[in-house]
Amino acid sequence: MVECVDTISELRTISKKSNIPASDFPCVLVRGYADSGDGGGGYFVWDKNLTNDDSGTMIKPTDPIIKPGENADKGGWKRVFEDLLNVKWFGSKGDMKEYYQIYDPAIKGQSTRRYQGNIIANDNVLKLSLPLEVTGFMPDDINKTIVIWDGSKRFVNKIKTFINLGTVELTGTAKESFSNAFVSWGTDDSIPIQKALDAAKEFGYAVYLPPGHFLITRSLLYSTSKINHDPTRYGTSSFELMRHGLRFFGAGMQKSFLHNLIETQVIEDTYPSSRAAIVIDGTGGTLLGSWQQTGFLKDFHIVSTGHISSTVGIDLLATFGYTIQNVTIMNMGSHGIIVRNRYVEPIYKSSDFDQTDKLYLDNLFVFKNDGWGIFVDAVEGAISTSKIHINRCKIEENKGGGIQWTGQGGIIEQCGIYGNGVIAGTTLPTFQAPKAIAKAYGILVKNVTAISNGLMITGCEIQGNADVQVMIEEGANIKLIQNDFKDESLSIRFTFPSVDIQVGDGNKNARYVYGCHIEDNRIRMSWTEWGKYKLGSDEAKKSTPKHTVVKVNTNALSTVISGWWTAQFWGEEDEIHKLIELVENVEIDPTTGKPYSYANKLGKGLIPSNTHIQRTGVDGRNEGGHVLLPFASKVINLDENLVKKPVEVNTLRWGKFRFRVPPNITSFTLQNPTGYSTGALLFLGFVSASPSDVTVIFSDGYDIAGKKIIVPKGKTVTGILLFDESGKWLPFSPWTCEGKPLPL
What we know:
The chain has 4 helices and 63 strands. The protein is mainly beta and 744 residues long.
């Protein structure tokens, strides 16, 4: 026979109240945790050997009747389930209130609105601003946590007394007044959810966060310590055995919410932690390098209602093989996700002990956090974190920046990185342009005086981030391939950056950026000065700010840039100020106190070669050796009308031109290009179909003015010009006719 009770509390006292031995209730159906139907019920069976009580899956009776021969310290009910723990089984409510529904005549239907209210400074009475037909507070709201916020102001407290549907008395007094401020309140679910995590950690269960709004005021900690393994059983290893990681699943974004209202961090261990909603610590607080593995967080939403200062979404330390998928993190007072690598072991100088390895972040929406969206928190010399894969994520409007990365090996792909490091502008009646925040970037490869290496950024759309969209402070083998960079003034939330990609931070005391490879990326530009001018108009073109696509700084070596291409979009004219900028590395002669004299004015910039453009400086000569390969080609078919005046080429849009000379043209003048970028190359090719030699004359303008080349009949001539820092086009390498040198 199955006994039925309404709550877990009734299950505990069923023996005492009925005066029947607890073991005589072998199977009990519980209808709810605190109330019938609240989602915390289930089937329980008697286990005579049970000693633990976790308040959710194992329940011990209170003062039970004991049969002769039974052990009074043992016995209790175990919940019948398989693998997935529901946090409501431990008493979570998920009842936080933020919005109410009201009929709106304008739309002839229900409208969703936030609760709002007023409280006076040094008072504890809160009054909601509510229509009469809307339900606000209820008598059972006593002791629930409440947050009141307005802009940068916020007040978190407890409800002490229910007065009426629109008025409550709080346990504390407000330090300042709030007028028509937003109001949310609900049960503090921190302890019940933590109990679910503890049960999962002990037995390897997964945890389920059902639909609802779960409020927490302390971090949910999943921390495991090192297992003392038996070498005779498991063999020897450089690392102790790993423990299972956290498996935490919700019902979906916009379904299962964790509301981070943590004002005071309560986790105290040897590691600096944060006010994170979820903290995963594989060291057990010891920093001895025991990693968790195969953790999986999926399908939920973390938000700091009220934008509580210093709050964080997820904090990871010493983890291995974690996946975080389909998760939204927004409105944190600090970072969205922190990946720790801050501990450097003092004897061996190793940063392995708190590293995170093989982290996979997929389909995350990290939005409007006050810190970085994704923050690899590494100190000087710490680069052990490795193989972070960030895929299909939208990283948007995080004030600290989009992604800060350091470590060994990683991929950022198919992500949208928008408007990070930006103070959004305002529109009418008072127009304010958006502003870039100092030292904030869309993506930052951080300088930790070590060699972060092997990062690939590919397939991403990168738009309107701070003043530099991608900053590579230092590293090696960093690749940016097939990304879409957008610079526009169509959104008041995004800036118009002055640089898309900067290679090197210019710090001569730091290590260099070695072998950065930038290939087949796209740039799209448009300028309206946030609606002041018509898109593509002459006024817009004239007022377009100066913009550099790639800036190669003084601590960069062996940079490869190739295949950059532009495209018209929404009437864009692609008025790029500088496609490539090389910053001269000026070194001082200690004997004279003056800069060294270089035959090549670019110093450690581009190095010419007799046969091709090559990398140098890799073999120890330390000469720089940046490589600029041809950009997208523009084919120009010459005709008699086109050559009646000097032929002009658009060097703001194209870096490589190929001229097809028909049989009826024997000479033409090429307008000497003007207005390009220091250190950039112009690739020219002439393909002749003429029965006689063709003379190509460079028009007046710069150093090559008045010079000419001869294209032999039916042949192809190619050559390269270099735009030097004095503003002159110079021959970069010998011109060739089908592989043979041809003097200019």
